[in-house]
Amino acid sequence: MTVDELRALIASGKFHHATVKSGQGRCWDGLYVYEAGDGPGYCRGFKLTGSFAYGWGDRESPDMTAAYDLVRGSGISFGAYGEG
Prior knowledge:
This protein is of the alpha+beta class. Helices cover 24% and strands 29% of the residues. The protein is built from two helices and four strands, in the order H-E-E-E-H-E. A four-stranded mixed beta sheet has the order 3-2-1-4.
């Protein structure tokens, strides 16, 4: 997913929520984006649509920072269903 794709998802009204995962290892840390809907692939009214990796090294990814800025204040959560 790109920042522009996230922007389009939000504009379409299909954005459901985003979850920040951290402390699970660099390959899993990041921002996970979910869209609203029903049917195959959806669970509890939403499904994983894309993600932004935290980044490698000491700096966070500029794309993840930009994506977080877009979803800030939208009910973002930390962790994931069943993980705390």
